[in-house]
Structures are given as structure tokens and as C-alpha cells.
Design a protein that fits this description.
about 375 residues, mainly alpha, three-stranded antiparallel sheet, about 10% strand, globular, binds 2-acetamido-2-deoxy-beta-D-glucopyranose, hydrolase
Length: about 375
């Protein structure tokens, strides 16, 4: 029996309009060129609007049409857009932006930055642009890929994050001041993703710079999380990095945890590291056993395995992609179909605020009607 989804009414006004008139209605093949042009047009709409209205701030505020700093003061949207410019083949704009960043980017600033966001967006954005640049036809300096302006900026940004890892457990604080290090009195509570989402960037940085410190820090944090799993094999949502005690004990695949699992798999592939893949596959067993109901994934209590939050949220949408990466196509298709059904019916995935936790990321989602219904659905 399929279970019903309860959609809060407030969500309806946030829904994206469904796209009508695209090629590829029933029975005919979709036209990739049409979608390619559509994606390009969407990118340039957002990119040019940012440049016109929000630069040099981090992000555009689309309602007031001005800029503001969100995750630091890095002109973050420019960094986020760098690799996309290369993928779209816009080398001249890419080179212009690299020069702008070289002249303006300064990490010696009194800013309280999210360690997680600075890594994935700034360090990751700079590194992927650096690595893609040659293939995209950008002239690179001698010694590339072990030298180059973007790599130097990425390394500088990453060094600013290292003080966050100076904890008794090796698991990082969530916030660091780029000038002064960790603030006195900083909360020691970090979400799981905020601890386990470094290996891809940090291992890349270590191999390009020859300094092993980044990869070592990322690996220690991953090991501590692994050792902190419950005896039924699950990790919770937030942990105290000083004591190693779980503070939020909801186990699931969505907000607060998501990219930890993603980085175990991507790290295993990137580094050809069997240990990382073994960790993921062990988690995967427990996730499937305790959190999966009819190919939906709910939140459960990490020690007991009982459902604690029966919600589906947009940040879980990466899961079928991750299943595909490990070759689990069958299950990926089932979960994808569930999520796609929500998308088709409502025009988007739910981003309602649920149990918010102090990580800078919101728990968002659709509530499943009743846990009992979900359980009985599984037994059908
Ligand atoms: C590259 O991007 C800039 C800024 O949006 C734009 O003016 C230019 O036309 C683009 N060039 C190409 C080749 O798309
Ligand atoms: C950073 O956080 C600390 C501790 O909460 C606070 O005292 C300080 O004013 C903040 N600095 C900035 C630039 O926001
Ligand atoms: C699955 O859950 C049951 C309890 O519901 C437990 O006995 C069993 O060991 C679990 N198996 C795995 C692989 O986690």
C-alpha cells in the first residue's frame, strides 16, 4: 500500500511552475540540444544577474535584487560559477574571473566562516576550476597541476580551516574565524556532514601540494565518525567534537548527514580506497535495514532503530545517484521513481522547515502521514 504524503499548505506557494512545451512528450525522444540551451540560458540569467546586482557580495538576494555576504566575504557566487564557465566553454569569462579573484580574494579577514561550506564551495570550487582549466583550453603555468593561482588560493583557504580540527577527537568544529581561529566559547556541536565532508578536497589538495596535513585531518575525522557509530551500525545527526557524544541521535540519509555518505563513496573512487568503500557498504546495510520503508528513507533513533522523524526532504535526492555510483541500479531506480513522483505531482521537492538544528543547514521535508502507516506499508 503506498502511503500518503502530507504536504504543508505553505509549501504550495513555493512550488516551481511545471515546464510545459518541452520536446519529448509521450512516445517521442527528448531533444538534448533543447535542454542544453535551456540550461545555458538559465545559467547566464543567474550569473549575469549576480554580476549586475550583487557582485562583489557572496550572493544575490532575488527579491530585493541586491547582494549580501552569506558564507564569508568571498564573492562566493563567482567561485561557485568558475567550473561551470569552463564546462560551458566560456574561457574568456573564466580568465577574467580568475584575475578578479586574484586581485580581490583575501582570506585574512575577521569572518566567522562555516568550515563545511568554505570547504565544499571555496576550496572545492577553486580546486575543480584549477583541475579543469587545462582541458578547457586555459593557458596554465609551468608545473601545473601542482602549481597555479587557483591552487594557491585553494590551499590558503584550506589552511584557514585547519584550526577547527584541533580537538581531542580530531573531529572539526563547525565554525572557524578566518583570522583568529576557533572563537572562545564556540559550540562544540557539529553535524555529521560537517565532520565527514572533507576527504575529496583535502586529499586532492595534499596530492597537489605535497603537504599531507589536509588528507590526514580529513581521514582522522572520518575514522572518529566510524568509531562513533552505534552498535546497530548507524550514525546520528550532531555530535559533540570535544567529548565524542552524540547530541542529535536521528539517523538518516538527509540534512546534516547526506554528504558524509557521498564523500565515503566518492573518496573511495577517487583514491581507490577499499577501506572507505567498506565503511559505506556497512552503513548501507544498516540504512537499508532500519531506515528504508518501501524505498523511502526515514529518520530513526540511531541506537534503537525506531522511527523518530518520518519525513522526506529535498536534500535526500542525491541518494539514487549514490546508489548508481556503487552499481546498485535496481534500488536507485526504485528510490528515484519515488522522488520523481513527488516532483511530477508537486513540481519540486519539499523544502519546508522541520526540526531545525544549529548547523546552518535546515532540516526540511514532507511529513509521512503516520509512522504506523509506514510500518504497515512495509509489511504489505
Ligand atoms: C561568457 O560570459 C560573459 C558574461 O556572462 C558573456 O558576456 C559572454 O557572451 C560569454 N561568452 C560566451 C562565448 O558564451
Ligand atoms: C564571531 O563569533 C564570535 C563568537 O560568537 C563573536 O564574538 C564575534 O563578534 C564574531 N565575529 C564576527 C566578525 O562576526
Ligand atoms: C536488521 O535488523 C534486525 C532487527 O530488526 C537485526 O536483528 C539484524 O541484525 C539487522 N541486520 C543488519 C544487517 O543490520
Amino acid at each position: 500500500m503506498p502511503f500518503r504524503l502530507l504536504v504543508p499548505l505553505g509549501l504550495l506557494c513555493l512550488l516551481l511552475p511545471l515546464h510545459h512545451g518541452a520536446p519529448g512528450p509521450e512516445g517521442t525522444a527528448p531533444d538534448p540540444a533543447h535542454y542544453r540551451e535551456r540550461v545555458k540560458a538559465m545559467f547566464y540569467h543567474a550569473y549575469n544577474s549576480y554580476l549586475e546586482n550583487a557582485f562583489p557580495y557572496d550572493e544575490l538576494r532575488p527579491l530585493t535584487c541586491d547582494g549580501h555576504d552569506t558564507w564569508g566575504s568571498f564573492s562566493l557566487t563567482l567561485i561557485d560559477a568558475l567550473d561551470t564557465l569552463l564546462i560551458l566553454g566560456n574561457v574568456s569569462e573564466f580568465q577574467r574571473v580568475v584575475e578578479v579573484l586574484q586581485d580581490n580574494l583575501d582570506f585574512d579577514i575577521d569572518v566567522n566562516a562555516s568550515v563545511f561550506e568554505t570547504n565544499i564551495r571555496v576550496v572545492g570550487g577553486l580546486l575543480s576550476a584549477h583541475l579543469l582549466s587545462k582541458k578547457a583550453g586555459v593557458e596554465v603555468e609551468a608545473g601545473w597541476p601542482c602549481s597555479g593561482p587557483l591552487l594557491r588560493m585553494a590551499e590558503e583557504a584550506a589552511r584557514k580551516l585547519l584550526p577547527a580540527f584541533q580537538t581531542p577527537t580530531g573531529m572539526p568544529y563547525g565554525t572557524v574565524n578566518l583570522l583568529h581561529g576557533v572563537n572562545p566559547g564556540e559550540t562544540p556541536v557539529t553535524c555529521t556532514a560537517g565532520i565527514g565532508t572533507f576527504i575529496v578536497e583535502f586529499a586532492t589538495l595534499s596530492s597537489l601540494t605535497g603537504d599531507s596535513v589536509f588528507e590526514e585531518k580529513a581521514r582522522v575525522a572520518l575514522m572518529r565518525l566510524w568509531e562513533s557509530r552505534s552498535d546497530i551500525g548507524l550514525v546520528g545527526n550532531h555530535i559533540d567534537v570535544l567529548t565524542g557524544k552524540w547530541v542529535a541521535q536521528d539517523a538518516g540519509i538527509g540534512a546534516g548527514v547526506d554528504s558524509y555518505f557521498e564523500y565515503l563513496v566518492k573518496g573511495a573512487i577517487l583514491l581507490q580506497d577499499k577501506k572507505l568503500m567498506t565503511m559505506f557498504l556497512e552503513y548501507n546495510k544498516a540504512i537499508r535495514n532500519y531506515t528504508r520503508f518501501d524505498d523511502w528513507y526515514l529518520w530513526v533513533q540511531m541506537y534503537k532503530g525506531t522511527v523518530s522523524m518520518p519525513v522526506f526532504q529535498s536534500l535526500e535526492a542525491y541518494w539514487p545517484g549514490l546508489q548508481s555510483l556503487i552499481g546498485d541500479i535496481d534500488n536507485a531506480m526504485k528510490t528515484f521513481l519515488n522522488y520523481y513522483t513527488v516532483w511530477k505531482q508537486f513540481g519540486g521537492l519539499p523544502e519546508t522547515k522541520g526540526r531545525a538544528v544549529g548547523s546552518g543547514r535546515l532540516d526540511e521535508g514532507i511529513l509521512f502521514s503516520q509512522t504506523e502507516q509506514v510500518k504497515s506499508a512495509e509489511n504489505d
